[in-house]
TrEMBL record:
Entry keywords, A to Z: Membrane, Transmembrane, Transmembrane helix
Membrane-crossing residue ranges in chain numbering: 12-31, 43-66, 86-108
Protein's UniProt name: Sterol desaturase
Organism this protein belongs to: Halioglobus japonicus
Amino acid sequence: MESGSVNDQFTYITLGLFGFYIIYEGLRGRYRDGRKTLKDWQIFGISFAWLQFVERPMLIVCSYFTYRTLMPGLEGNYGHWQDAYLVPLIVAFILIDELLHGSVHYFAHAKRAKNKWLAVIQRWYKGAHRLHHTNGGPDGKGQIGASQTIVVSWGWPFSLPNYWFGTFCLYLGLWEVWIWGTSMKSLWGIHNHANLTYDMTLLKHRSPLISKTMYALCHVFVFPNQHHHHHSRSSNSGKNFQNFIALYDWLLWKKLVISTERPAVYGWRKSEAEETSVLYRFFHRPFMDKWKLGFFKP
């Protein structure tokens, strides 16, 4: 099957599932009573438009010319690997992609780096990631749903190393590996943000075999309630950094949290400017606190 047709099929599947979850959440009343505000929908629209029409094309163009300049001899030379090793390559792609993403995600949530230059980079990631955690109104009733998957402020996707890893795979000619790997991760990420509760039901199942099996699976894969706790306004916001492979949260970051209850409150507290303007919330970036980072003496 041609890579283009495979990509089209996964695009339709992803958009279809995305739309299904949004409609499902609406029918279940997940957007009522302050759970989702007008500003949340506005932010979703801005994020979607910016990602699709500005940032993603810019990433593809910039990464392609970077690779072509630095590694001109590698362009398209490894596509034949897919004929013999497609499944192992997809597994390797997902594991590497998840590790790169989890590393930066962990860095964005960590305490301020002691090295002042690392602190500047970290401040960028913290600011770029903040929008993904600011939802709902000031009443604390806001909840996340499938639409939150794509809520990211400018610069976050462009500066993620796993996105550059993906375009590098494309440059090498590993189209099918990239299509399958990114599609599987996207579908799983949408499912993790959606208001699904099956994982909590299985964790509380009366059968020990079912509950313990689900508990074990939560150490391998990320399920909705694990990611919902990452979006909570609690200490769990600094837990569960992965989108797909929970093994890294468990064995590498030591930040795995498994709960049978939903978070009490979602989202980070917002400043008055963030509460007032969706454009400020999307575009504002405190690049550098010069005094605290030690570049200048007061």
